[in-house]
Write a structure and sequence with these properties.
about 550 residues, 7-stranded mixed sheet, 7-stranded mixed beta barrel, 25 strands
């Protein structure tokens, strides 16, 4: 093969797939196929795998991501975007994704991204959110775990309802709820005139054992009372019966009675933070009260366990004397039994008779009349105004209202109802609303009137004329005494001398060696002998009683043998 043919052969061998040829030596030439060049490098598989994994993660995240809820708080203290978790029963169910200030700048809006699992029972009405921080409260210390992990948002979800609408905006609580949803127990409501020293978290006691706590309070719509919500844990809620009585067990109760000085206290927690206690008024009543039942909250145990008073009956009392010392809340009693209290004291003017008087308003509890009220009910079963009929009958028999001193040291007074048969009759209008009971002057006022009358009479005595007459009489007596002294002194001296002489003679007469004493001794001896003879005679007559008739016995005749 020539040199000119060699390049052509090489070129043909390199660029073409030649057919099988035979070499000059007779051997077949190999059929060589060149390798086809690749246009895509294997390095591109790495970003493809990364993109596939990323897409998988995005899809998975999208499938597990729930809705976003907005919670309003007073402040965002302790909250951080991307760090603060949302927990339900200590299980993470979401994450804070944004914190903004509300358009009106009154609150802070916190956006929380929830997980898809559990979003159905979180996004419903009644769900509560609060920020868990370290807190020191009445019920103890809570949230200490957040010192290391940081604050988080706690969630309390009510029981799920199939037909409930989804809610995505909530108002957060500033304090953790005392009772979470699903806790076994029963809620009740207590009505009180004021809150006293009670607070949320204050304990509820039964036989001095804590069985619940106060979970909330608010004013009634009319503002006349306070509604206190309590929660009693199961199974102790069965002891709250229909006839249960509640009272405020806060602080220390001091009393001074005939039994001495009495001090009653509850637990240290109730002394510091207040508390409520309850008991059943009847040992036979074992039927539990219905959930959300309403009870009255008394101030003390004695008031709570007392018999029911029934509806109060309003009355008015008109006093024309001073009412100093009579205060609102003063008792109205009947012979020592408290039947009501004073609720208002005003000054009024009677334009017809032209005088001022004190208008005292009070309330009476007819059930406290006891048997008298029950007898009236039995005798007048068809009466529509049994209270009015009872008071009318008592007024006709002399019932009057009178102010009396309750404490002489402090000057406090109270209103006493009692019968005064000799009291003058007064016009009584039973149809006046409220009923005006007739009054009578109090004992203290009567005493003041009597003292005033005595002082007036004393002022009417002419002390000046009596003094002049008395001075004239004293001068006359002085002159008489002087005259008697001048005239009677000599005569008195003579009388004294005669008396001294008479006494000297009496001394001589009674001397031991006088004849008078000798005669007296002789006479006494003779009287003694006579007495002995009489005694002998008496003894003889006792022995011989017939001697008075027969005479003395004769001497016996001696006959010689």
């Amino acid at each position: 093969m020539t040199e000119s043919q060699q390049p052509e052969s090489d070129s043909h061998h390199a660029n073409a797939i030649p057919a099988t040829t035979e070499s000059r030596s007779g051997l077949k030439q190999p059929n060589i196929k060149p390798r086809r060049e690749t246009r895509i490098s294997w390095i591109w598989l790495v970003p493809l795998v990364v993109a596939l994994v990323g897409a998988t993660l995005l899809v998975r995240n999208w499938m597990h991501t729930g809705p976003t809820v907005t919670i309003s708080f007073e402040s965002a203290e302790g909250l951080e975007v991307g760090q603060t978790k949302v927990r339900y029963k200590d299980v993470v169910i979401g994450l804070v994704t944004g914190i903004t200030v509300a358009p009106d700048r009154s609150k802070v809006l916190v956006n929380a991204q929830l997980n898809l699992d559990g979003a159905s029972y979180i996004t419903q009405a009644g769900t509560r959110f609060w920020v868990v921080r370290p807190r020191l409260g009445i019920s103890g210390v809570s949230g200490l775990g957040t010192l290391l992990s940081g604050a988080y948002i706690g969630v309390d979800a009510p029981e799920s309802k199939a037909d409930s609408a989804l809610v995505y905006e909530f108002t957060g609580l500033e304090k953790p709820p005392e009772i979470t949803s699903g806790r076994p127990g029963t809620r009740f409501t207590l009505k009180a005139a004021d809150l006293g020293s009670l607070e949320i978290g204050s304990p509820v006691y039964y036989r001095r054992i804590q069985v619940g706590r106060i979970i909330g309070y608010d004013l009634d719509s009319n503002g006349n009372a306070v509604s206190v919500q309590i929660f009693v844990d199961r199974p102790n809620d069965q002891f709250v019966t229909k006839d249960a009585r509640f009272w405020n067990a806060s602080g220390i109760n001091l009393s001074l009675s005939a039994d001495g000085f009495n001090v009653q206290t509850g637990s240290m927690a109730s002394v510091i933070a207040g508390g409520v206690a309850f008991a059943s008024a009847s040992a036979m009543d074992t039927q539990p009260a219905a959930p959300a039942a309403v009870f009255a909250l008394a101030g003390t145990e004695e008031q709570a366990m007392a018999d029911p008073d029934g509806s109060p009956f309003p009355i008015e009392l008109h006093f024309r004397q001073s009412v100093r010392g009579l205060k609102v809340g003063a008792p109205i009693d009947f012979r020592g039994l408290e039947l009501g209290k004073v609720v208002d004291i005003d000054l009024e003017y009677n334009a017809l008779e032209k005088y001022f008087y004190a208008q005292v308003k009070g309330v009476l509890y007819p059930l406290r009349f006891g048997a008298a009220y029950e007898n009236m009910l039995r005798h007048e079963p068809d009466s529509q105004d049994t209270d009015l009929d009872l008071l009318t009958l008592m007024v006709e028999h002399g019932l009057r209202a009178q102010m009396r001193a309750a404490n002489l040291l402090t000057g406090q007074q109270y209103v006493a109802l009692d019968f005064f048969p000799d009291a003058p009759a007064e016009l009584f209008n039973r149809h006046h609303q409220p009923l005006v009971l007739p009054t009578i002057t109090g004992d203290f006022d009567r005493l003041q009137q009597q003292i005033s009358s005595i002082v007036t009479k004393i002022d009417a005595i002419p002390f000046e004329g009596i003094g002049k007459d008395l001075r004239g009489s004293l001068k006359s007596v002085s002159k008489l005494v002087d005259g008697l002294g001048e005239q009677l002194t000599p005569q008195a001296s003579a009388v004294l001398k005669a008396a001294r002489k008479s006494l000297s003679q009496v001394d001589k007469l009674l001397a031991q060696d006088s004849s008078f004493n000798s005669n007296i001794e002789q006479t006494l001896s003779e009287i003694g002998a006579a007495a002995k003879s009489l005694r002998a005679l008496a003894d003889y007559l006792q022995t011989h009683p017939t001697a008075l008739l027969r005479g003395p016995a004769r001497d016996a005749i001696t006959v010689s043998p």
